[in-house]
Amino acid sequence: MLLQTADHLKKTVVWQKSGNQGDKWLLVQSHVTLQEVHQLILEATVGGEAGDIAIDDIALSSGPCPASDMCDFEEGSCNWQQETTDDFDWVRQSGSTHNPNTGPDSDHTTNTPRGHYYCLPSSNDDRNGQKAKMSSPLYPAGKGACVQLWYHMYGRDMGTLNVYQHSEDGKQTLIFSQTGDQGRLWRIAQASLLPHVQPYRIVVEGVKAGPTQEGDMAFDDVQLTDAQCPPPGHCDFETNMCGWSNLGGETDQGDWLRGRGDSPNPNTGPSVDHTTNSKHGYYLYVDSSMGEWGDTSFLISDVFQPSTRGHCLTFWYHMYGNHVGTLRVYINDRKMHAGGNEEGNLTWIENGNKGDKWQKANVSVKHTEAFWFVFVYQRGMNVGGDVALDDIIILPGGCYSEPPVDPPDTNNVMLSAGLAVGLTLLVGIVISFFLFMLNRRCRKTNGPTIINDDALDQNAAFDLYDCKIQDTQHGTESDFSFFNNLYNTSPHENDAAVAISEA
Length: 503
Description:
Elements: E1 2-5, E2 11-13, E3 38-41, E4 70-71, E5 81-82, E6 91-94, E7 116-120, E8 131-135, E9 146-153, E10 160-167, E11 172-179, E12 186-192, E13 200-207, E14 217-225, E15 245-246, E16 257-260, E17 282-286, E18 296-300, E19 311-321, E20 326-333, H1 334-338, E21 345-351, E22 359-365, E23 371-378, E24 385-396, H2 410-446, E25 460-463, E26 468-471, E27 477-479, H3 482-487, H4 491-502
Antiparallel strand pairs: 1-2, 1-3, 4-14, 5-8, 6-7, 7-14, 8-13, 9-12, 9-14, 10-11, 10-13, 15-18, 16-17, 17-24, 18-23, 19-22, 19-24, 20-21, 20-23, 25-26, 26-27
């Protein structure tokens, strides 16, 4: 697709595609800003008898093209535009940057030298504070809650990367900023968008630190999501890999893959994820059928700032199958990484078959430098065991652990039982003594008596302390020894009482 101006008949290529693109219709959008009269030209070149090219539904409209939620810059700029009020331009390129010891070797999307990204190269002619800006297409009001992009800031004299939310009325708000060397890795930037009632753009700004040839920065894979940004380090892998990424390069012999349901290998790996406990939920895994014994797969977190309280890493892991290999957790920082140490300090390790179930792990760490976590899986001797991760959480502070429950102390149990028996006997003795003394008192006061039926009617009240029954119905008082009749062992008195009763 070309633009031709009317004055000078100058043609400019604004989009092109070649080769087989599959048996389907594909949408193309191109935003063009020209102050001159111009003409659009669509030009096709036949490649042979076995391939046809077709176009349909052409439309030209005023204003920017409808915004796309994701751009990996593989097909172009996705209507991102260079600012005209800055000092430099971002450059779309692939492969390594021209300066040694800085910049990425490949893009983030494909993790190969063929993929494309936008780079801000450095030079000895740079001055401190010089800027380069790129702005996104115009997003409608109410669109999106979180913006994500991947950035690469590796070099001794790295400057600053800023991300702004720029509303249509000219107001600009800084929503993300990072300064200095972040290691030879692609890092994720996530920023919550402010509530907006006007259309807005996302602006990515690179600020140079001064004359250097070790300050190349880059960005790639910009995405706008309607979901809120997750906290740093948190991921359930239901939507994507969040801030976690594969290391790539020569150190990494395999990738962590996002999958769901049964793992590719039969009788190994998880059949459900941990988050939803279903075949529809996602997790990360390494396919042990690929690669050789001892091959490693690196999973890298975002960068965390040091804290006096430390940090707690919580995650769920699944290690099932024969010869499943080893899973390790390291912490790394810029100093160790600059010295060629891709792993860092070992903080946790597990190996072997742990059964067909998800296991929970907590790892407390304290580090004095900005650091990141590294999961490393090393394959076992034979195919037949997969490892998987899910529901990773990183929080400031140490990991909480419940106090251990001591087993029952046999001596304490026997002592408690003895005390219980002793107290029971003591209570029995006290009650017996009380009854004995009360019985003696009643004997001395009343002596044995014989009563008739009228003495015990339903309105009679028994006075325990006076050993009497107060007859409230007849107005008479009869002496009755409660304990004499119940506990007196005299055979004669018992016979008398029975005889009167029978009468």
